[in-house]
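Please, structure for the following, as tokens.
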Amino acid sequence: AGLGEEMGRIAGRELDAFSLNVDFAPVLDLGAPESRKILGSRTAGETPEEVARFAQSFLKGLAELGIAGCGKHFPGLGSGQKDSHKELPSIEKEEREMWQEDLQPFLRLASQLPIIMVAHVYCPGLESAVAPGSEKAPERLPATLSSRIVSDLLKGRLGFQGLVLSDD
């Protein structure tokens, strides 16, 4: 985490040199072993605490240069085993586990992030938890197209007020 602020300043200077004011970083996904071949070195740690600590310092470095950061990939690709730009990964975790792990960095940083990028990922545990008692089974939608994930969870339960973007 000590390097995060300096990395944010370096990225901020580079972006500012091109008159850009947004960095689509930091990655808030947890670095789970099963996703290493997909996420590689883009994650800042294996625990929510490590990821949030790094991201907070990185955002501080960016902000010093007037650059807005973007937390991604909501609600978390940390245990995904497919490249979400090519296939739809499914995160097979229960709601409780998602809240304890993958959602924690977003929850901790929601008030500091001006932008959150939503992932192309299917999270059945979150889909059914957001609409409990629904007679209808949740559609197999990526989070980017799910009102349950974007409106009910991100904006509602997490209280995120900033800009929401879709991954590419």
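The helical segments are 2-17, 36-39, 48-64, 95-100, 104-109, 124-130, 147-157. DSSP finds seven helices and four strands in the chain.
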